[in-house]
User: Fold this.
Amino acid sequence: MSIEENMIHYIEALVPDRPPLLKRMEEEARKEFIPIIQLPSIQFLRVLLQLHRPKRILEVGTAIGYSAIWFANAVPDCDIVTLEISEEMVNRARKNIEEANLSDRITVIHRDACEGLEIDKPFDLVFIDAAKGQYMKFFNHYVPHLRTGGLLICDNVLLHGMVVDSIVPRRKRTMTNRLRVFNRFLAEHPALETSFVPIGDGIALCIKREGI
Assistant:
């Protein structure tokens, strides 16, 4: 085991104990190769959300509802809208959210997030964790609906280190190149204050200024 892997396991062991439901979801995701956010990353976001105290959150990419449940537990007075393209994942997420007694606060919408969504009120936080090659489309659809001073959070922006590798598997090249472009876009955008955090698979954390 490498030093980096040892560090990850060490940090994971320091994350406070989770409810049985979340532990079960983690195990299901591991066994079934369902992409959910890494444990150190979600604990980092939990602390961040408790500082920011968002009232309305938009999540792009529900999967089995793992992140949404964490967010709802972190900020008990927030409401969450989460988009998911897979009908199977939608059904599983809704079941998990119901088991967590959060159905009144988390709304799961079965929809391709690339198509956009009719939004009547701005969000305080937008969390993007879906198809990595489509992050720019998600940005264009949803960040205009993020309030000034709100947070944009994007997971997996390091893509297992492939964004810095000179040799990338052929089937990953388009997605990797798009993510490199997206990261540079965030870093240089005049209406964003952006920091890239090398935790988990990489998180981009942005504060929205006026101008988007």
Remarks:
- Residues 173-188 form the longest helix (16 residues).
